[in-house]
Structures are given as structure tokens and as C-alpha cells.
What does this fold into?
Amino acid sequence: METLVRAVIGYFILLVAVRVLKRRAGSQMTLFEFVLIFLMGGVIILATVGQDRSVVNCTCAVIAVAMIHRALAWAKSKSPRIGALIDGTPLVLIRQGAWQDEAMRRMAIRPGDVAAAARAQGITSLHDVDYAILERNGGISIIKKL
Amino acid sequence: MAEQPFTTPVEDTVPKLDGEVAVGEDLDFQRRWWKFERIIWSVFLIVIVCDLLGMFGHGWLAKAKVRAPDGSLTIEYERIERANTPSTMTLHIGPNAIRDGHVKVFVSDSIVQSLGAQRVAPQPAESVIGQGGILYTFLTTTGPAEIQIQLQPVLPGPHSFRIQIPNSPAIEASVFVMP
Amino acid sequence: MEIALWTICRAAFGYFFLVLIVRVVGRRPGRQLTPFEFVLIFYLGGLTLTGMVGNEASLVNAVCQILTIALCHYGLSWLRLRSDIAARVLDGVPLILLGEGGWRTQTLSKMMIQDDDVMDVARDQGIRDLSEIRLAVLESFGQINVMPRSKADGEGGA
It folds into this structure.
């Protein structure tokens, strides 16, 4: 029983931890982020399972996590507010060619990061960018000026 | 001259949408899959409920308490155990088992071997092996008295054990160890 | 001897159970895994491996279990190649989200996708709004692919 409770709590702790680590600009996961994930995940796993390392216990913990994840996904689909709470919303960085300074500052993004995303679409100059949007998963979408 | 690679002509096997875009959708299969998913999630829910109730060990349904007919011994144990997981078996000694400040308890070999006894608390004053088990002698004053055996079973499957105060009826029970 | 057999069984069970869980839990549609999904993968995998390994931390144990997993994976891949039905069961099929008739509402609701998600992907390709999309398909591995209307049939579209 405690394992199930700990599994659910662990899931939410991980969710909050990932949200709090600021959304990094750029779609690539750097090495450091992999290491952090490994660290956080590993610690929570050991805390969830504790001394009881039987197949039965771990399987039930996995099932509990899967069920919570699915339940949250369903809740997100029914209520946009919950989706915004859990995943965040897309954020506009460049609007009609103009930098949105507050957004850039709060998400700790430099113009160079936006330029890199633009280059990925073959755009060489930021003057050609109409809109740049920081997506929920951390990538930046670029919309060219017509 | 290099060998010609094996080739097959490009056939139209991917189902088309509107006769134009080759998407390969198969809604029939997907509907059956969605039904399958519903079943799977119900199974998961049942598994979790069983786990909470203790059917997989260490829960409410698994706890058992057995009493010898003459009251000399009561054992609290788990009917369903989990492999590689520590758990405690408690022996309550009744007053009619204590003679001359000693109490002797016979435990079958299976407690030590297949159920993996790690520790007997308190330490017995004497352990005598033989007759398919171990005869422990504990120093006692007056009842009630308790002995705890720490178990950690290794292999899954059913295991039976026998615990007896000499000259009293034996308690025999079996434990099922889950993986 | 029994313990060795038992160890292999645990490894095989862990592998197949993970295949089932990953298939059934599903993922947010998108080109990449979100950071939380990475963490979730590690969490689920780590819990499964703790059950597999238990308290037996020897090298022999590790090698045997890794080999078992590798064999199971090879077997499953072979099966996926040889059998159409197996491929559909293991991977899923592509599903249309937005077609000429409009949104496929049953698909959208069962897969828990909103039009926001389709727009996310469309923005990636530089499309400005929904009317420019001709076809949106949810691939079996979770990615959404969007096909824009070409300029030619944009005027006469539905």
C-alpha cells in the first residue's frame, strides 16, 4: 500500500521538478539534462520501492504510475486550464517582428537561441521572422514573414 | 562490375485515403484496439485493488493468526509473502508452555531454509538441531511472552512450516510466496 | 538451478510488461519527447528493473538478464517483421485527425488530442492557421504530420 502512495507522490514530485527547471530554449536535451533526469528519477525510484524489491511490488508501482499518467492526460484533454497548469502554454517571443522582452527575460532565452531555431528552418536573418513562439516542450517555432 | 541488388517492383500495398494520399489507416483495427485498451485498464485497476487488499502479500487479507488448541502457542504470520522482502512472524507463548523458566519451541527446517529466517529475536539460549527442524530454548520469567522471527523468503511458490511447543499440539500452516 | 530459471523469467516478464505499458500509456503527440516524458520513461523503466533485479546484484545475474532482454527484443522485432498483425498490435496504425470531411472527433477524443496539438505541429512548418491544413495524420509512433494545402487548391477547398 505504501508503495502505491509513494509511487503517486513520486510522480507528482517529478512533474513539479521538471516544470520548475525552466523551459530551456532549443529542442536538444543537453548532457546535463540527461544526468539530472537520471539522478532525479533514480532517487525517486529507490524511495518508492524501498526494501520490497519483489516483482509484484514493482509491477504494481508501474501500474499505479501508468494509471496516474493516463488519468492526468484525460483531465488535460477535458479541461484546458489543467493542461495549462501541467504543461504550460506556448509563449510568444517575437510578435510581428518585435521582440517580447518580458517573455525573453522570464524564460531566460537569448536572441541567439531564437536565431538558432530560425537557422534550423533555413532562415538566415532574424529580420525575416514574423513570429517566434516558445512551445510547451521547449522548442521554438518560427513563422516567416510573408 | 558489382552485383545487381535484389529488387522488387514498387507495389501499391498501402491503403489510400480518397484514392490519393497513401496513409494506411485501418479504423477497424483501431476500434478493436480501443476496446482492448479499455479491458487492459480495467485489469490494471483490479490488480491495484487486489494489491491494496493484500492479495499479493503484506496486506489485510494476507495476515493470519493461528492458535494451538491448548493455547500454548499463537502464531501471527502472513499467508502470502513476497520474495526477497523482509517480514516478521510473531510467536506468542501462552503461560502453559513455560516450564522452569524455560520455553522450548520447535520450528521446522522450512522456516530457516525456504522461508529464509534471518534472525530470531530474542536470541535463544540454546538451539538443538534434529528431527527435521530446530529446537530453540528461551529463558523466560512469566507470560505473556513473544518471539519474533525475521523472514526473507527466496524462491516463490508454496511452502509449509510447522511450529510446536514440545508435548503440545503442533501448528502447521503454509505460506505462498509471490515473486 | 531454480533461481537461475527464475531470474530469466523475471527479466522476460519485465521486458514484455514494459512493452505493454509503453504501448498502452501512450504519449503526447509531438516530434520529440517532452522533458517530463523522458523522466517518466526513466521512472517506469527503473521501477521495472528494480523488480527484475531484486536483491541479486551479481555480474552473472546482470549479464543473464541483459541477454534475456536482448533475445526477447530480437524475437519481438523478428515477429513484427514477419507478421502484419503483430506489427499492427505492437506499433499501432496511422490515424487521420483532420481530413476533407473535417475533424475526426472520435479519433481525437480517444487519443486525447486537441486542435491545439495539431496547430503546434502546423506552426512548426510555418502554417498560420487551421484553414491551411489539408490533412493531419497521427502516426503510429505518436508524431503528427500535417500536410498543407497547396496554393492551387486553397481557393476551392471545403
Q: What stands out?
A: The radius of gyration of chain C is 21 Å. Strands of chain C lie at 95-99, 102-103, 133-138, 144-148.
